[in-house]
Amino acid sequence: MAALAFLGEGEDVAPVIQEILQQLVNGISLGSIYALVALGYTMVYGIIKLINFAHGDIYMIGAFTGYFAIKIFHLPFLPALVVAMVVAACLGILIERLAYRPLRNSTRIAALITAIGVSFLIQNVALLIWQPNPRAFPDVFPFRSYDLWGVYIDNRQLLILGVSVLLMIVLHYVVHYTNIGRAMRAVALDDDAARLMGIDVDKVISFTFAIGSALAAAGGVLVGVYYNRIDPMMGTMPGLKAFVAAVLGGIGIIPGAMLGGLVMGVAEVMVVALTESTWKDAVAFAILIIILLVRPAGIMGRRVREKV
Amino acid sequence: MLIVEELNVFYGGIHALKEVSFQVKEGEIMTLIGANGAGKTTTLKAISGLIRGRSGSIRYNGEDIASMPAHQIVRKGLSQVPEGRRVFADMSVAENLTLGAYHRKEAISIKSDLEWVYQLFPRLAERQQQMAGTLSGGEQQMLAIGRGLMSHPKLLLLDEPSMGLAPLLVKEIFEIIREINSTGVTILLVEQNAHMALSVADTAYVMETGRVVLSGRAAEVAANAQVRAAYLGA
Ligand SMILES: Nc1ncnc2c1ncn2[C@@H]1O[C@H](COP(=O)(O)OP(=O)(O)O)[C@@H](O)[C@H]1O
Ligand SMILES: [Mg+2]
Predict the structure, then answer these.
(1) Same structural domain for residues B3 and B71?
(2) Largest separation between any pair of C-alpha atoms in chain A
(3) pLDDT tens digits, residue range A93-110?
(4) Whole-angstrom distance, CA of residue A171 vs CA of residue A211
(5) Which residues 77-136 on chain B approach chain A with CB closer than 8 angstroms?
(6) Of A37, A168, B83, B113, which has the fewest Cβ atoms less than 10 A away?
(7) Range of the domain at B29
(8) Ligand 1: does its nearest atom lie under 6 Å from the Cβ of B82?
(9) Which class would CATH give A35-135+150-294?
């Protein structure tokens, strides 16, 4: 906003710039949510080289948990967010234990197919219990919009930005400055060497699923607040887009997932603004194809590291 | 201290260790020598729990550790410095050393071990914030040994610490191994460099294609005609 400070009261920026800034605000809000979800994909991939296709469904479960916490248990927003994150963390740990751990030493394709199966399972159970029709997410924050020289930002966008930035700072701290975080990085780099350090690799993998799932749940709750609606299939598209975001940033690289999420959000919003919204979901796949052709290691990826 | 009896290890259909038996006595340097592919690394991995034997026993201070998970074996005071160093390349020297002490809680003794490691390897002290992957081969080996020491082991397993190092560095590393041993740490040293290994060791075992074929005091093994012909180029 600093660049706009020279403008006087009531004076508007040229409409084009104004529109671009507006789309940036919208795109970064959406992108923060993609980033939160992308982090889970990238952390799990970094540690066990598995694309956890059930991740988008954990995000959905997070949104529903937040919904029930607010609607039925009348919790305020922040406690509801924490409850959703904790429930999702437990679900993530459970999925890893039951579905992925038994396949740890089998082929990658077997694990991948299992992940898709887990995703279908969660979705269908959710459809059965909660019905396919969307529900209105409780209106925790009455909509308010602020006009910054013709660029609008609303309180929900501010909430999304605030919560995402806070969670990412916490994540950065955990990963870089705690024992469990160091252990996570060590397992991702060389699991056998990590074992020789006395690291319980199974525990570290559980922890990684817990963190990734909690972040996805936060994304789910924020989306509920932002769009005011949730449904059992809500995880599919954002799940795929967040996965593309993780690949875009360089799968396995944490800052890459953050950057990839923001780029995806902005790209999607821009495309909607410039073309018809029917192109919206195609953006993700266009980006995926382009990265795979041009830079398969992702924006922040160096070489493709192979383990010995 | 460590007694391995009739250990058999398979990789799929490959019988990599055949009825391997040996022991390491408290306080000594024991060396396991043999050509490439003899089964030395496999032996160390079986001891530290990275792979499982099909049969046989591995007793450490009287306790059978053959089916114990690797991370618990480290807690018993048994630490392996793996072949090829395996330092955590994208982490700093200091972080690698911190990870070596992962399971320990007592900040004071961790700190004194860290000071000791930096004293043994002043070059690591100068490079605390450098990424391990950017160190030279010799420095990485020092880091791998230092990291192994940070778990405060009673028994240190070293897998080819001289591999790929210039002769002067090899000498330096062997002197440090002796120094570590002099503080009371028992050492099991795996080497292809039989000459150097036999010169520092108290006892020696020779492996060939998955079997122990000879053992004895290091000086005796070094004097053995077959060993001299096959490993010492004499
Ligand atoms: N992961 C593995 N899979 C299959 N065979 C292996 C594996 N690791 C080692 N081997 C085989 O086991 C034998 C012993 O290998 P190793 O213990 O590495 O020998 P050394 O350390 O003495 O050079 C060799 O024949 C080697 O080819
Ligand atoms: Mg070897």
Answers:
(1) yes
(2) 66
(3) 999 999 999 998 889 899
(4) 8
(5) 79-80, 82, 84, 86-91, 95, 98-100, 102-103
(6) B83
(7) 1-77+153-234
(8) no
(9) mainly alpha
